[in-house]
Write a structure and sequence with these properties.
The protein has 192 residues and is mainly alpha-helical. The protein contains 7 helices and 4 strands; from the N terminus they run ααααααββαββ. A hairpin with a 2-residue loop joins β1 and β2. α2 packs antiparallel against α3 and α4 crosses α5.
Amino acid sequence: MAEEKLNIEDEITPLQAKLETIANEIGKVGVYVAILTFVAMSINLMISIYLDDSKRFATVETLNKFIDFIIIAVTVIVVAVPEGLPLAVTISLAFSVMKMKKENNLVRKLDASETMGGANEICTDKTGTLTKNLMSVKEFYTVDQVFVGRPNHFKEIKTSQLLTEGVLFNCSARIERDQDNGRYVPKGNCTE
């Protein structure tokens, strides 16, 4: 049992995924700019050598300048990669955990504050959700009315299409094909 807990890999949080995407894009731009800088400096050197009849292409000075161009290109790549971004995110998450602690909220994982920051509504239930892992809507409010359960005339409500789209577009639940048996299974947060 203890070994299983140690072998569990943490899932990447949405913020980490976005930051990784941004870091990769910045890195790609840095590589492109470095290549463009090297090519531009090399072309400039070749044109200046070609226009100056007293200089020759194959000299130690020309080789040293090409090495300098390579060093400048590598420097551009190193400067473009945001090394401090993950550290800044970790510090900001730790700061938010401390703020939650002041409000008497115990946080075990740093990314919990990120998850809670994205929550608009929290649905709780004393029974059923915890014991059966099933969540059901008891009542909801729309069009200035409170509906208990699922009303019989739900399809007649003017906003039923809007409600349906709102639920579908604001959840991470999805249906995927199971790799083992090829059947479709629901995936995502069980409360959705």
